[in-house]
Input
Amino acid sequence: MKKETKLLLTAGAVLAGAAILSTRSRNHAPLKTVPRVDLNRYMGRWYEIARLPQRYEKACHCVYAEYSLHPGGGYVEVQNACRKGGPNGRLKMAEGKGFPVEGSNNSKLRVEFFWPFRGDYWVLELDPDYAYALVGAPDRESLWILSRTPTLDQDVLERLVQLAELKGFPVEHLLLTDQSCFTQG
Output
């Protein structure tokens, strides 16, 4: 057997093994979403109460998102905002588009901030009055607890954290979001 062929076979075996191990360690039960989201009611401002750490949200304070239906239809306009470094830090904005996943009754969206990359935005729990939401991704690496107000009742927060844990999210890594720029008198 040629040396190059041996190297290719060895490299292939190592990559295959790594892929199998990666798949095994990320083997989760299917992630259940809410049955339906009324996009008209979901539109507006949502404050981030807690999140799993995300590289793009490092050092973010006073985080919120604004959602609006695109006038031409077909997708949701997304505008995320945070203050970098502290409540008085520089305002950082990011604009994206959320595309409802066919057959999900709007409970699953694919959100794109940088074409062609899209991420999962699945609504896992939603208050009947659309006052708070638990949003995550099926890989369990993204999770947000959102509220229409900058604060959330402690009992509701604890219930949402417990629900996220039951769904397989690493809630021990949750970060509470500093919303002091909205809550100071």
Q: What stands out?
A: The chain has one domain: 39-179. The beta strands are 44-51, 60-69, 76-84, 90-100, 108-114, 117-126, 132-136, 143-147, 175-176. Residues 3-25 have pLDDT under 50 and may be disordered. Residues 3-25 form the longest helix (23 residues).
